[in-house]
Each structure stands twice: as structure tokens, then as C-alpha cells.
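Hey team,

Sharing the NlpC/P60 domain-containing protein run so nobody has to redo it. Sequence (300 residues) first:
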Amino acid sequence: MKKTTILTTLLITSVTLSSSLLLSTPVFAATTEENQAAQEKIISDSSRKLASIKEATQKASESTNETTEQLTYIGIKIQKTQTAIQQLEDIHSLGNVHTSENSEENVPLTIEMSSVTLDEDNNDPLKEKKERLAELSQQQQELQTDIKSLKEEQANLHKQEKQLSEKIDQAKKQTTEQAKQVDTRTAVVAAAKTHLGKPYVYGAAGPDAFDCSGLVQVAFASIGHSLGRTTVDQETAGTTIAVSEAQAGDLVFWGSHGGTYHVGISTGDGSYIHAPVPGDVVQIATVASYAPDFAVRVLS
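Structure output:
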């Protein structure tokens, strides 16, 4: 009985997860790709732990059923032993009454108790039955304690299973959202690339010529995202970040906040697309060749 509980406890302990692991907030990576990889790792690790917990839950359930059956069996034996003790006590009681009332007549007394067998070699069968009852009662208490512990362990496992399932669902949801973001960012860059080679014309916003902010406005409009027409309008369209943190679809600016004079769209690889100056065309340039002063994240 105890052995079963100890083995089950050891198994459960081997897969028990710390609350910090279950409830910790995912750490967002520096890039979308790293973030996606982090969420996929959470899903993979949590799924393995969830499988282990489900296995432990099954074993704990089997142990509970087995222990419950043992408890039922012990209960039946206790009832039979109690009945036997009562019958033996009745025999002793009747024997004492007969002795006191018929001591001079020496009349034989015959009592039929078919369910009780008296061992001629045993001087005190009643004492033996009572000792057996004590042993059975002790076993019953131990089994009841085992069942209580197993049920507590099962409840804890169910709680962990629920937390892990929620963690996996959350990671899957974030992965889906990140995939959509990647698609959106890629779409912005792809839209801007369709205009490569078109001439720069001040104040133009396509379809055959662009200035820097006109190119940005048209590229974002292609994904249904409305931006202001000027660089100053566009620099307030999102959250300011360092140029080194720029991902595909982020905007890169030249000049100070409130006084920007040029904007491009980051491709996420240390380059950007922009419409540079009169006499030039829409093109891809590198941060190393013409470094922006800051970046803005428009798409979350």
C-alpha cells in the first residue's frame, strides 16, 4: 500500500513543474524571427512536459482505483471479523449465564453458531479476533491516507495540466499573430520594391514617380494602413526605436524628431528602400552607406 503511493509520488515529482516556469511571461526576442523561435520552443517544451504529466495523471488514477479496491476488501474483512467477535462474545455471555444458573444441575448446554469456528488448540479465540481486527483497522487507516494523498496529487497534476495547456495555447496564438505580422511587414517591403527604378519627383506619390514620404505612404496604403503624407507626420505614426533594432517594415528617418527631412522603409537586413533625391530613382541602400538617425516601428 505505502509502496504504491511512494512510487507514484516519485513519478509525479519527476515531472512536477515549478510555478515560475508555468506562469512566467514569455520574453520577447529582439527580432520577429527570434520571437517566433522562442514561442515554438515554448510550445515544444511545454508539449513534452504536458505529455509526461498526462502519463503521471493516468498512473495516479490507476493507483487510486487499486487502493480503493483494497480499501473495500479490507472493509468487508473488518465487517466479518466484527461479526465473529460479536458471536464469540455472545457464546461467552451465554456460557456464563448457564454456569451461574445451573451450577448444581450439571445440565449440558448446546449452542449452534455455524459462522464461528472454535479452535480447540487456541485458548483465547476472542483475543485473536480482536487483534486481527486491530490490524485490519490499521490497514484501513493507511489506505484511507493513501487515497487522500493520491487525490491531492491528481488535483495538483490537473492544475499543472491546465496551466500548461493555457501556456501552449497562448504561445500558439502569439506564433499566429507573429506570422501575420511577418506577412504584413513583408508585404510592405514587397510593395515598395515594385517601384524600384522609378524616378524621384518632389511631392509625387506614384504611380510613376515618388518622393521619399510618398513612397512610404503608398507602400503602407497597399496593406490597408494609412500614414500621413510628410516625414514629420510619419515619424509620429509609431514607437521610436534604435536603427539597429529596425525590422522589415519599420521606418528609418534622417534628422531630429519634429524636423525630419528624409524617410525610408527598412528591409530588416541592414538595408532600406527609399526615394533619395531629384535626379535619382527608388532604390535599396545600406545603413552603412547612408546611416539614418532613428527608426520608428509602425507595425506592432
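The two ends are 57 Å apart (CA to CA).

Ping me if you want the raw files.
A.
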